[in-house]
Design goal:
307 residues, alpha/beta, Rossmann fold, 2 domains, 5-stranded parallel beta sheet, 4-stranded parallel beta sheet, 10 helices, 36% helix, globular, binds N-carbamoyl-L-aspartate
């Protein structure tokens, strides 16, 4: 039972629980109106200490489409955080007003700390360069819908694998399904952290390969997961400027990918996908953003036990 639990890390739910959640989200996506009163009388606390478009708005839209309401802030400066209040005190207060809380924070581990002080479910909406489990649920729902399964896939992750929390979470999640092969495409400076290799890829005996160029593996991939270089996590601007345009996926490169390969991106995109790709039938990133709302409707329903 997912009811009343927190979601801080993709591993917090078993694969069986995730499969159940994805099936519910798929059902919701087909007939959202059947679920429009499920959360009536319930309140989502939406605490965003870092910028967001899709995650925040899809959570808020999800709660409203379930008939619930939303309170919160999208800038830490507009809350008592600017007066020096701790996460523990903020969450203890918000938990008095809301039935469920979603939190994004620049500090790794902040939503975990919040969950330790909260009487209501806390959902991690991204903590620094660490994890982003609800983006992963979005990605899993998209992959399962398009590919029909979550196993036996060749996935290429491209871009900022060092700071990209969406990649960290997706690798974790997909490592639990059988026969997935991973291709990690990044410049040397932005390679996947060692802890992901040691604690996930090696531990689960995942077949993985590291590349510096998309062309080295694109012809082999079922999924190409593009990511932006995470400007806000760099220590100096020069490095960011040097690395930001390492990868630009364009028609020329897409010609080398198969007809079945799909392109995903958590968004926002900066330069890493040329606009000319948007009309390619293999470009799924805006459909993926819509899936994010349905999967969050499913998640909120299950955590509140109203499904
Ligand atoms: C991602 C994030 O915030 O980590 N965006 C999102 O939630 N869809 C990716 C990013 O910001 O690059």
């Amino acid at each position: 039972m997912i009811k009343n639990r927190h979601l801080i890390d993709p591993m917090d739910f078993s694969t069986e629980e995730i499969d159940k959640l994805l099936s519910l989200s798929e059902q919701i996506s087909k007939n959202p109106e059947n679920h429009s009163k499920k959360c009536s009388g319930k309140i989502l606390g939406s605490l965003f200490y870092e910028p967001s478009t899709r995650t925040r708005l899809s959570f808020e839209s999800a709660m409203m489409r379930l008939g619930g309401q939303v309170i919160g802030f999208s800038e830490a400066n507009s809350s008592s955080v600017s007066k020096g209040e701790s996460i523990a005190d903020t969450i203890r207060t918000v938990a008095c007003y809301a039935d469920i809380v979603v939190m994004r924070h620049p500090k790794e581990g902040a939503p975990k700390v919040a969950s330790m002080y909260s009487d209501v479910p806390v959902i991690n909406a991204g903590d620094g360069g660490h994890q982003h489990p609800t983006q992963t649920l979005t990605d899993l729902l998209t992959i399962r819908t398009v590919k029909g399964s979550l196993n036996n896939l060749k996935i290429g992750y491209c871009g900022d694998l060092k700071f990209g929390r969406t990649v960290h979470s997706l690798i974790k999640a997909l490592s639990r399904y059988p026969d997935n092969e991973m291709h990690l495409i990044s410049p040397k400076e932005l390679k996947i952290p060692d802890y992901i290799k040691e604690e996930i890829l090696d531990k689960q005996s995942i077949n993985y390969f590291e590349h510096e160029k998309i062309e080295e593996c694109i012809n082999d991939l079922d999924i190409l997961y593009m990511t932006r270089v995470q400007k806000e996590r760099f220590f100096n601007e020069e490095d960011y400027i040097r690395l930001k345009d390492t990868y630009i996926l364009d028609n020329e490169k897409m010609k080398k990918g198969s007809d079945q390969m799909i392109v995903l991106h958590p968004l926002p995109r900066v330069n890493e996908i040329a606009y000319e790709i948007d009309n390619d039938p293999r470009a799924y990133y805006f459909k993926q953003a819509k899936m994010g709302m349905y999967v969050r409707m499913g998640l909120i329903s299950m955590l509140l036990g109203v499904c």
